[in-house]
Amino acid sequence: MSWIEDPEFALDKPFGPQTLPYGVLVTSAGPVVSVRVGRHALPLRRIAGSLGPRLPELVDGDSLDPLLAAGRESWRELRERLTEIVTAGSAPPGAELLRTDWHTLVLPFRVADYVDFYSSRHHAENVGHIFRRGSSPLLENWTHLPVAYHGRAGTVYVSGTDVHRPCGQRKAPGDLQPAFGPTRRLDFEAEVGFVCGGEPSGRVATSDIQEHVFGVGLVNDWSARDIQAWEYQPLGPFLSKSFATSLAGWITPLEAFSHARVPTPVPEHGLQSYLVESEPWGLDLSLEIRCNDTVLSRPRFADMAWSPAQQLAHMTVNGAPVRPGDLFASGTVSGPERGQRGCLLELTWGGAEPVSLEDGEQRTFLQDGDRVTLGGTAPGPDGSVVGLGEVTGTVLAVARR
Ligand SMILES: O=C(O)/C=C/C(=O)CC(=O)CC(=O)O
Ligand SMILES: [Ca+2]
Ligand SMILES: [Mg+2]
Questions:
Q1: Alpha-carbon distance 71 to 102, whole Å?
Q2: Which of 85, 140, 213, 348 yields a CA-CA distance of 20 to 30 A from 109?
Q3: Distance CA 205, CA 209 (A)
Q4: What InterPro entries does the record point to (predicted)?
Q5: How far apart are CA 361 and CA 179, in angstroms?
């Protein structure tokens, strides 16, 4: 029996000892690096004496940056040590448990570069139909390489941060002139983010993902569809997706997903050798999207056409290093069914088929006051379940300046 008396700290609950995500919790003494145990957070600075040599200095600050830079051997050691500590019969000296629902989280690391992929075939085909009616929904390159665009690291915000409706240019097909103003087509995108660390690298082989990916966090890539449709050709989305991107405050170590790994489908024409996986790096994650109190969709990450290992290999194949704090997101996760689509653009088919909320209201795109929450789970060892920390955000009216 663990010294942690919390019914949510159990193998059949998402935040039991099989999960152990890291976050930075705001306490009366300032932000502290913590590990989540059920409904509680265990600040690591206070139990430094029980962590052994070298590890305390990686977790005694106010961010995960030193831990991210330290690399895989340290990540493994810390997780092992923490597993012993949280499953022991008695508390380590200095231990304090804080309720997660009474404290806020801050962005747990300094985001270096942010890249967003486009790796769900269902999403790419649906968006292709909606944005480029009449032409082939998938462009020729899509099955040969994981398509991506570079985002803005400075607008990645922690879960819980409000999102102001952005302004921008739009021009619908029948309009004579572009107009400027608040977006009328504000959307969410349910995605999975991968947080990088370790030595800055050159090319990363698919088999080396564990040396460079520290952990996993849910991402909402807020998108202004009217701004996007007007600006995106030929260089891809820009201001329509860079006003806010929300990241979960709890980052779950990649190691926690070792029982969730599934193969990625190989296209008929084969792959360039740098994209071939020697072991499967698809992940069997079940996601859930809620708007206010209504579950809108349940996408499955196992349906993705490109794995995070292939994405990482691709984004470094030209020699561009991956650095600690880099974040890459999977792209919108959509499945074949309507109830598995990862954004409103698809769920409402470009705004033509509204979705109903439980309060009787309907939505095509988001209204001010709407709250969007993404959650997820994965299979863990011995029938357990590994939880992904939620990412949530509320839409506010256009900011005054
Ligand atoms: O022009 C398109 O086909 C669409 C591009 C995107 O929506 C980019 C994006 O954020 C990709 C994704 O999340 O899957
Ligand atoms: Ca996206
Ligand atoms: Mg974004």
A1: 32
A2: 85
A3: 7
A4: Fumarylacetoacetase, Fumarylacetoacetase-like_C, Fumarylacetoacetase_C_sf, Fumarylacetoacetase_N, Fumarylacetoacetase_N_sf
A5: 28
- From the candidates 40, 122, 123, 212, which is the catalytic residue? 123
User: ipTM for the complex?
Assistant: 0.94
Q: How far is the CA of 397 from the centre of ligand 1 (A)?
A: 24
Query: Beta partners for 215?
Result: 195, 253
Q: Which of 41, 75, 106 is the last residue of a domain?
A: 106
129 carries an active-site annotation: no
| End-of-domain residue from the set 79, 106, 133 | 106
Which CATH number covers residue 82? Answer: 2.30.30.230
Contact 34, 98 (CB under 8 A): yes
Structure letter (DSSP) for residue 322? P
Residue 5 belongs to a domain: no
**Nearest Cα to Cα of residue 346 among 296, 277, 291, 401:** 296
pLDDT grade for 134, boundaries at 50, 70 and 90: confident
Could you tell me where the DSSP H helices lie in 60-207? 65-70, 72-87, 121-131
The two structure tokens encoding residue 62: 């106010």
Same domain? 360 vs 229: yes
Q: In which domain, by residue range, is 100 found?
A: 22-106
C-alpha distances out from residue 395 to 183, 186, 219, Å: 12, 9, 16
CA-to-CA distance for 69 and 199, rounded, in angstroms? Answer: 7
Beta bridge partners of 218: 192
Euclidean distance between CA atoms 2 and 89, whole angstroms: 5
Binding site for Mg(2+): which residues? 221, 241, 245
In a domain, 8, yes or no: no
Pocket of ligand 1, beta carbon within 6 A: 116, 118, 123, 127-128, 131, 189, 221, 232, 237, 241, 331-332
Digit-coded pLDDT (tens) for 10-56: 999 999 999 999 999 999 999 999 999 999 999 999 999 999 999 99
Which numbered ligand comes closest to the C-alpha of 225? 1
Residues 138 and 71 grouped into a single domain: no
Q: Are strands 163-164 and 385-396 parallel, antiparallel or unpaired?
A: parallel
Please confirm whether the linkage preceding 178 is cis (ω < 30° from 0): no
Q: Is residue 233, in this structure, part of any structural domain at all?
A: yes
- Domain annotation covers residue 2: no
